[in-house]
Amino acid sequence: MSNKKIWTLAKDLYNRFKEDELSRLSAELAYYFLLSLFPFLIFLITLLAYLPLSEADVLATITQYAPKESMVLIETTLNQILSNQNGGLLSFGIIATLWSASNGINAIVRALNRAYDVEEDRSFLVARGMAVVLTIAMVFVILIALLLPVFGKQIGLFISAIYGLSDEFLSIWNAIRWLLSGLILFIVFSALYFIAPNKRLQIKYVLPGSLFATVGWIIVSLAFSFYVSNFSNYSGTYGSLGGIIILMIWFYISGMIIVLGGEINGLLHKRKENSIY
Predict the structure, then answer these.
(1) Which domain holds residue 33?
(2) What's the domain count of the chain?
(3) What is the pLDDT of residue 213?
(4) Each residue of 34-74: pLDDT tens digit?
């Protein structure tokens, strides 16, 4: 793609940003992300009894990207909830996660429908069922992402022992294992952009937005975490609410990246239909 076409795409994306009210949609997503966060974590952690994982493994995965102050809030709240654990916690986690997260998926569906300029004509049951299925799929994908580092380390040690490989191999192996988390994130975004809009798409037409969302979310999350840790003072401004404010801003940024990825796919698809490219 030439520089002129990239510049034209950027201008069109800016216009769509204003027309489709992406700022408002991102705020809506942030609200639903916050509502579904703790039920989702409760559900994951209650499943740990059946998996070779610990609560620390789950939190360590989030720590890679989340701002430090938000992690303090997440860990404190989660420990308070789990201290009152009972037999019905897993059932509550399932119901609350599916309902809250499916609301978030529905918000993403509305945003992606706007990106393609299509109306939602699927029935409530079909739309909600799709949101629930996507939520369940995300649970399994996240579990796989958590399990890979655990089993990957054992596999690396096994290969190293059999072939007598050096420590350099283990260093390279560890780097490859962590790159898999980016690949899994790319797969999640691709599935979301492919299934959620009320429009028949070919998988190749959702890959540009998926790549943008994956790379953009990782870079922006790490940059925001660095900024919060080194330059900002939200606690001084908001007091005890500082952790919640930081968490909401992070969710807002994440929602923005998701809807921008969808808008990129929508623009490229329209240009393809109009034979511009």
Answers:
(1) 3-273
(2) 1
(3) 92
(4) 877 777 777 666 666 666 666 676 777 677 667 777 777 77
Q: Which of 76, 77, 70 is nearest to 254 (CA)?
A: 70
Q: Which of 19-23, 55-59, 223-227, 247-251 is predicted most confidently?
A: 247-251
- Tell me, rounded to whole angstroms, the distance of Cα 122 from its chain centroid: 25
Q: What is the dihedral of CA 196, 197, 203, 206, to 10 degrees?
A: -100
Share of the chain above pLDDT 90, in %: 7
User: What's the rounded Cα separation, in Å, for the pair 206 and 186?
Assistant: 11
DSSP letters along the chain, please? --HHHHHHHHHHHHHHHHHTTHHHHHHHHHHHHHHHHHHHHHHHHHHGGGTT--HHHHHHHHHTTS-HHHHHHHHHHHHHHHTT--TTHHHHHHHHHHHHHHHHHHHHHHHHHHHTT----S-HHHHHHHHHHHHHHHHHHHHHHHHHHHHHHHHHHHHHHHHT--HHHHHHHHHHHHHHHHHHHHHHHHHHHHHSSSS---GGGTHHHHHHHHHHHHHHHHHHHHHHHHT--HHHHHGGGHHHHHHHHHHHHHHHHHHHHHHHHHHHHHHHHTT--
Which has the higher per-residue pLDDT, 85 or 168?
168
Whether the per-residue pLDDT at 5 is higher than 90: the answer is no
Q: How far apart are CA 170 and CA 270, in angstroms?
A: 46
Tokens representing 143? 């579990």
